[in-house]
Amino acid sequence: GEFLAVVGASGSGKSTLLNMIAGLDTPSGGEIYLESRRLDGLSRRELAAYRAERVGMIFQSFNLLPQYTALENVALALLFSRQAVRERRAAAGAMLERLGLGDRLDHRPADLSGGEQQRVAVARALVKRPEILFADEPTGNLDRDNSEQLGRLLGELAASGQALVLVTHDRGLAERWAQRILRLDYGRVAEAWQPDRAVTP
């Protein structure tokens, strides 16, 4: 249930670190462990299963499919589950409702605001109930108000027990919501601390 933020300047290795822990990239050297399982030795198929079963991802660019509705975009995350189509749609609708988008189920991304698109992306990441939620610069395309709303939502998720790793250049966002912060500098952890003013949602 920890909310961990990774901060650092552009090029410090934040997204690379996140992508390796999430199983999107493999390291050229070294070892990666999640709990006692070594990730860097897994096959492509095993990494795909790890991502499908244990990991949720939120990206800066939302990565929503423009031809699909909000409901369809979220339901796609369950495509490889053993659930029937009706169950996938019901789960997607319930997650969108939880995030305040119950009246936007049939809207396509172009018909949604930036903040709404990001909440659809969060719903898509959460609907499969991941053990770890990774967020890579999720406020990069949002204005200040929507960034604050997303930070509050991530804080609420962490308070409910969701393990969460946030990569951000926004140190203020990290200090406001995260429980622990790591600062990377050229691929190395340069500093680690717990914010004095961390807000409990």
Q: What is the fold's blueprint, element by element?
A:
Elements: E1 3-7, H1 14-21, E2 33-34, E3 37-38, H2 44-54, E4 55-59, H3 70-75, H4 85-98, H5 114-126, E5 132-136, H6 144-159, E6 163-167, H7 171-177, E7 180-185, E8 188-193
Parallel strand pairs: 1-6, 1-7, 4-5, 5-6
Antiparallel strand pairs: 2-3, 7-8
Helix pairs in contact: 5-6, 6-7
Count of strand segments: 8
Distance between the ends: 14 Å
Q: Give Rg in angstroms.
A: 17 Å
Could you list the spans in which at least 5 consecutive residues all have pLDDT below 50?
Answer: none
Query: How are helices and strands ordered from N to C?
Result: EHEEHEHHHEHEHEE
Helical amount: 25-40%
Strand order of the largest sheet: 4-5-6-1-7-8
**Share of residues in strands:** 15-25%
The 3D shape can be described as globular
Average pLDDT score? 90
Structural class assignment? alpha/beta
Helix count, DSSP H or I runs of 4 or more residues: 7
Describe the main β-sheet briefly.
6 strands, mixed
